[in-house]
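Sequence and structure are kept together here, with a separate record for every protein. A complete record is shown below as an example:
=====
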Amino acid sequence: MSTGAGSRPDRRRVLLILLAFVLGGAVPIQLVTLSFGYAQYVKGITMGPQVISTAHEFARVYIPFVWLPALAGLMGIALYARRLYPDVTRRIVVGFGMGAVATIALDAIRQMGVIHGWLPGDTPVMFGKMATGSSDFIRYWPVGLAVHVLNGASFGLFYAFVWGKRGSYRSAVGWATAWALLVEIGMMTGPPMAPMVGLFGYNYAWPQLFILTLVAHVFYGVTLGLLVEHFLTDEDRGGLFRFLKGPAPVEAGP
C-alpha cells in the first residue's frame, strides 16, 4: 500500500523497487559487457571469431545462474506488487515493455549499418553465438534476438525508474534521448565495440559507424520517451527519489 505525503516510505516497497531496479536493469545490461569484457580485457582477445567463443565461457555461467534468475525475479516482483504497489508494477511493465519496443526503432537504423558493412557484425548474431556457443542459425538467431531485445528493454526500465513521467512529451524526449546518448558513449568506449573497432569506431568505418549508432540511439531515446510518457500515469511523476517515497498525489480537478 502506498504511503501518503509526508509519511515514512514503506520499507517493503522501497526494497522491491531497488531489487527490481537491479534485477531488471543492472543484471541484464551487464550480460554483454561482462561476457565480452572477459574475452577482451581478461583473456586479451579483441578481434575474430575467438572473441565470441571466449565470451561464451563467461556467458554460459552468467546466463543460467544470474541473468535468467534475475529476469524471473523481476517478473515475480511485478506480479507480487500489482495489488499492493500498482505503481511499482506499472513502472516495471511500461519501462521494460517500451524499452523493448524502442529497440525496434533502433533496429530500423542499425540494419542500415549491417547492410552497408559499417558494423563489425549483426548484433543478434553476435549475441546469439555468445549466449549459445553454437554456429547453428536455428539455435543462435532466436536467442541472440531475445538477448538484444531484452537488453534494450532493460535500458527502458532504467529510464522509467530513474526519470518517471516528466509532465510533457518534450521533456520526456529530451531526458530519454540524453539517456540514450549516455548508452551510446558507453557502447563506443567499452566492450565489445571499443576493443574491436577503436574508440567511437575510429579504426573500422569512421565516421559511418559512429554516426549510424548515434542516430540509432537517438531514435531509441525519442521512441522510449514518447511511449513511457504516454503509458505512465500522473501518479508516476518524478524521478527515482520521488518514486521511492511513494506515488505523487494527483491534483483534483476544479
Notes: Residues 101 and 153 are 8 Å apart (CA to CA). The chain has one domain: 11-245. Residues 11-245 form one domain. The chain is about 75% helix and 0% strand.
